[in-house]
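Example record used in the benchmark description.
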Amino acid sequence: MSITIDPRRGSGEFARLFSGFSIPIYLETLDSADYAFSGNGPSGDVSVGVERKALADFLTCMNDERFTGFQLEKLLKDYHYTFVVIEGVYRPTIDGFIEVCQPVRDRFRNESDKVMTWRPLYEGSKGRRTLYSQLEGHINTLRLKAGTPNAGFLVMNTTDALHTTWVVANLYRWFSKPWAEHQSHIGFYDPASLFRGKSSFEMRVAMQLDKVGVDRANSIVKAFPGMDGMVSPLEQMMTATEKDWESVDGIGPTGAKNIYRQLHGRNEVKEPKKIRKKKGDS
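Model output (structure tokens):
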């Protein structure tokens, strides 16, 4: 597999930035997107398209509806997953317009690679300015409404061309991995870690019990420390009787019964309520 890069202006001149990634690239004119590649999806091979937009270009497309009226429709049709990257560092001014972070230029108009400053963003020859709320509203509409059940869609923001290259390279690597191997979203809830830098295994088990907070979990750990290296704390918990649990500080008879049933998989079966018959009912 390789990343296909459109050689035309706006993407082709940045192909050299991929030289340090050990990723094969191929220059070819694309009908849509600036970068395209195939990868692994939930049900087999999928196609991925990445459209790069400098902030000023994106604002122009937003105002003349060129992107949403033509480009976006084609992107969603051509690719299973579409990513639109908006390139530029921006923020709202106090009066609600957009300003961008740009390099400072000297009197010879040479840009500094170390000194940056915030400047108002003007568009076109008329120097039109766009409200920050307009831009964010447009982006939110794209994020939430452009995608379809058959087309994934995501808007991303990068700082410059190198940052965009990293994003595209990492997307390529991510989709190169088998879909089933993406498991970083799966985690084990460890409430003990919210209160302690490092929690013991026994503490984590205790915190999973219903209605057991950090204080009661600490009491449980102290009450079941194990026995002379022969019986582990967890074994001691599992073999404890309801009376043993009652003796733990803060547990009590009701809590002991509840914990015992949780550990041994016994659910209390409640007797159905007796319905009192009204007079005249047979």
